[in-house]
Amino acid sequence: MVSSIGYSLGIGSGIDIKALVDGLAQAQRAPKQALIQRRQEANAAKVSALAEATGAIDSFAAALSSLVSGGTLFTQPSVSDPSILSATTVAGSRLTNLSAQIEVVQLAKAQTLESVSLADASTAVGQGDLTLNTSRGSFVVTVDATNDSLTGLAAAINAKSAGVTASVVTDSNGARLVLKSGTGEAQAFTLDVPAGTASGLERFAFGPTVTGGMIKAQDAQDAIVRLDGVEVRRASNGFKDLIDGVQIDLKRASPGSIISLGVTRPSASIEQAVGDFVAAYNELHGLLAKSVAPEADGQAGGPLRGDLSIREMRRQLAQLPTMVLNSQGTIKTLAEIGVATNRDGTLSLSQGRLKQMLESDPAAVEALFNPVQYSSDPLLKITSAMGKAKPGTYTYTDLVPASGGVDASGMIDGIAATGSGPYLIAPFNSKALGLTVEVMGALASATVTVDPGLGGALQAIRDAVRARSGPVVTSQERLSAEAKQIAKDQRELEVRSKAYYDQLVKNFTAMERQVSAFKATQSYLDQQIKIWTGDNG
């Protein structure tokens, strides 16, 4: 920038040149800077409003998903004596009715062995081989100079992953080896040492003909229950294959005690959930409506008026009351249970209609919140938990069950599924990703349907608007590009304003010099005239 003391003081012309240049530069810059400022503020408001809107729909979907997955909206089994057993609904299953009687005769137990006590965990146990025979096969455990101790023996047994857990228990009597199997009679095990072993390792042998070896603290045994008088055995105390859709966990044996199972319907919880959904929807609707409100009566409109992403959110959300949430049963939509759309786009709830539907068909109302997945053929059994695969109907073809060590095979919507024993797993490039089925027999074709339920439907809307090529991402990219352009325009304004300011300084500095030269010439001429005219005044 051109500058001088004379320019700063305006000595030549007597004019405040600095103030004049500053004023002219500011006058040229101010309207352009104000326009950029308004653009920056509008862009920031749009970014903030879009983030608030997407955050709101995220929260709405997450809250509803959490409510549904919490189990409070499921019909749950009721148990007459919960101190003997507990019963819960298997995820993805829907209980419509349940009436059964169970007697818990015996709990499943693990085989437990304990050795004689030694001085401590580091005491040598004797070197040699010990053969562990379990349901998984025979495993040779070797003790040598590197692991000749109770701790070393326990570690060597655990390293075999034979289905037997070894630990060292220390008390006032010393340290001893404790071995434990899984529950069930089939998990019983024995330990053998070569005949004639006298290293001390023979103290850890166990079997029907072994003497002086480990002591059996507990036999391996199956759980025995009587379901409606029919005796059944299970290898564990928790199982879900006795009553369809019900997980049973045994707590204690009580021969002779008959436990009644029924159902408890969550009618009150569903009423509360529907009311809460309508209230939360209306709050979200109000937020979205405010963000796109047009200018009216001198009032500024919403920052996102005209934004396609918000328009698409509102369009898809408006479909929720009439969207099919359950493909089976007599009630398929929220509208059928009293949820209606008002003229302004908000929702209202007819409590009377909801109560009527809960009384006439509670299972169908419940199904709107708790979706199910089902197969069209009993030879194709779904084994994955509900919620892992996206809602939809998937076609399986050319199904062949596992046989002779060859995995099951088949196609899902024309894509080869991944076989794993009797199971077929949807591959990563399939829309059915997350779905696992068991092929029970050969089938030319069958379908698996995964209903969305209200939580799934809302999550699908959220995923659609926030998809990589969806409207929200498009708006975010547009606003980001707009912010970059504004920043570029600001930088260009700074360059132009500085150039204009420098040009003004240069021009006015030159003017000062000319004026100073003119004044010097004038002063000289004045002096000469006075000399010529003899004017000494």
Kindly describe this structure.
This protein is α+β, with helices and mostly antiparallel strands. It folds into five domains: 5-37 and 470-533; 76-107 and 223-264, no CATH class; 110-218, Alpha-Beta Plaits (2-Layer Sandwich); 267-369, no CATH class; 373-450, no CATH class. The protein has nine helices and 26 strands. It has helices at residues 5-9, 17-69, 150-159, 267-291, 308-317, 351-360, 362-369, 453-465, 471-533, and strands spanning 76-79, 85-89, 100-106, 110-114, 128-134, 137-143, 164-171, 174-183, 190-192, 215-218, 223-227, 230-234, 238-239, 246-250, 259-264, 339-341, 347-349, 373-375, 380-382, 392-400, 409-412, 415-416, 418-420, 423-425, 436-439, 443-450. The strands form seven sheets. Strands 1-15-3-11-12 form a five-stranded antiparallel beta sheet, with no helix packed on it.
The share of residues in extended strands comes to 15-25%
> How many strands, what sense, and barrel or not for the largest sheet?
5 strands, antiparallel
Largest beta sheet: strand ordering: 1-15-3-11-12
Structural class: alpha+beta
Q: Quick one: CATH class of the largest domain?
A: Alpha Beta
**What ranges have pLDDT less than 50 throughout 5 or more consecutive residues?**
none
What is this structure, in a nutshell?
It is built from 9 helices and 26 strands. With 537 residues, the protein is an alpha+beta fold.
Could you give the topology of this structure?
Layout: H1 5-9, H2 17-69, E1 76-79, E2 85-89, E3 100-106, E4 110-114, E5 128-134, E6 137-143, H3 150-159, E7 164-171, E8 174-183, E9 190-192, E10 215-218, E11 223-227, E12 230-234, E13 238-239, E14 246-250, E15 259-264, H4 267-291, H5 308-317, E16 339-341, E17 347-349, H6 351-360, H7 362-369, E18 373-375, E19 380-382, E20 392-400, E21 409-412, E22 415-416, E23 418-420, E24 423-425, E25 436-439, E26 443-450, H8 453-465, H9 471-533
Antiparallel strand pairs: 1-15, 2-14, 3-11, 3-15, 4-8, 4-10, 5-6, 5-9, 7-8, 11-12, 13-14, 16-17, 18-26, 19-25, 20-21, 20-26, 21-22, 23-24, 24-25
Helix pairs in contact: 2-4, 2-8, 2-9, 5-8, 5-9, 6-7
